[in-house]
């Protein structure tokens, strides 16, 4: 039986859960936000990572109920972090192109913020370049409406798709998440990847956007990124995806 067919029952039975990965300031080491990453505790197959089922969910349209659950669960958990730290982290949620294409996404997010009481700037939505490049006017209108609610909009995996820089001009984007691919090349100073990253940071800052580098695995990479002026980092050097309580405990312990 196809794995995708088990997604609706998995949702009903509470088999999905979220891990969170820290988004850390390169300026002062503070926890700015966390990215929500969905996992499936499958009764026969064990814990499945999203690369096993997100693609299937997108193909079948099941990403709409699954992505809706992720959004609601992330907001529900994030509200509880307000008391935990003086500067509670925002929660960053990945959106698939099919979710952004739905006209009622804006209404769904608005209702969710109202129901949970999460301040809009504590929610970030991550979309990929291909979502922007899907041609239609609709995602653009949707993203404008979402930004009008006050939520943050990040471009995920920036630099690996077809970057049409016009959307940076025309859209209410607040952050670029630069793909780990460029960070991996940060070995020697003045390597091509370092010059690309430095240029992306200049471009982003000129447009009033912040930059988070993904896939930061070493202290050396973090130091190069800080020197370049990159705002924030995500990766194993700063923390692996983990339950929210673990990440918040570390913040409190280290504060
Ligand atoms: O958790 P992991 O590090 O394996 O994430 C793998 C990929 O799955 C990432 O590219 C991430 O963007 C994607 N992903 C994780 N959670 C979600 C989700 O809730 N919705 C969507 N659309 N993609 C997700
Ligand atoms: O949405 P996105 O594709 O950016 O999701 C992040 C993915 O990258 C997840 O699958 C996560 O487990 C993975 N990841 C996070 N940090 C690192 C890292 O430092 N190195 C590598 N190789 N992968 C990472
Ligand atoms: Mn992401
Ligand atoms: Na990414």
TrEMBL record:
User: What is the protein name given in its UniProt record?
Assistant: GGDEF-domain containing protein
Superkingdom of the organism of origin: Bacteria
Q: Which organism is it from?
A: Micromonospora endophytica
Domain (EAL): give its ranges.
Answer: 1-255
Q: What is the lineage of its organism?
A: Bacteria, Bacillati, Actinomycetota, Actinomycetes, Micromonosporales
- What fragment of the whole protein does this chain represent? 299 to 553 of 555
């Amino acid at each position: 039986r196809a794995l995708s067919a088990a997604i609706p029952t998995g949702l009903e039975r509470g088999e999905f859960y979220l891990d969170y990965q820290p988004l850390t300031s390169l300026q002062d080491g503070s926890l700015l936000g966390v990215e929500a990453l969905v996992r499936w505790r499958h009764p026969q197959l064990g814990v499945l990572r999203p690369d096993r089922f997100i693609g299937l969910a997108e193909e079948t349209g099941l990403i709409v109920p699954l992505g809706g659950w992720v959004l609601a669960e992330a907001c529900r958990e994030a509200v509880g972090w307000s008391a935990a730290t003086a500067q509670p982290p925002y929660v960053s949620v990945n959106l698939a192109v099919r979710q952004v294409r739905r006209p009622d996404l804006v209404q769904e997010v608005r209702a969710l913020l109202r129901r949970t009481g999460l301040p809009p700037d504590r929610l970030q939505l991550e979309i990929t370049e291909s979502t922007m490049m899907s041609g239609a006017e609709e995602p653009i209108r949707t993203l404008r409406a979402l930004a009008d609610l006050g939520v943050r909009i990040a471009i995920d995996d920036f630099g690996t798709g077809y970057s049409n820089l016009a959307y940076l001009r025309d859209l209410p984007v607040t952050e670029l998440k630069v793909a780990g691919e460029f960070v991996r090349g940060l070995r020697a100073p003045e390597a091509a990847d370092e010059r690309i990253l430095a240029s992306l940071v200049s471009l982003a800052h000129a447009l009033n956007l912040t930059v988070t580098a993904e896939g930061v695995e070493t202290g050396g990479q973090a130091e190069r990124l800080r020197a370049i002026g990159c705002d924030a980092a995500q990766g194993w050097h700063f923390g692996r995806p983990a339950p929210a309580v673990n990440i918040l405990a570390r913040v409190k312990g280290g504060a």
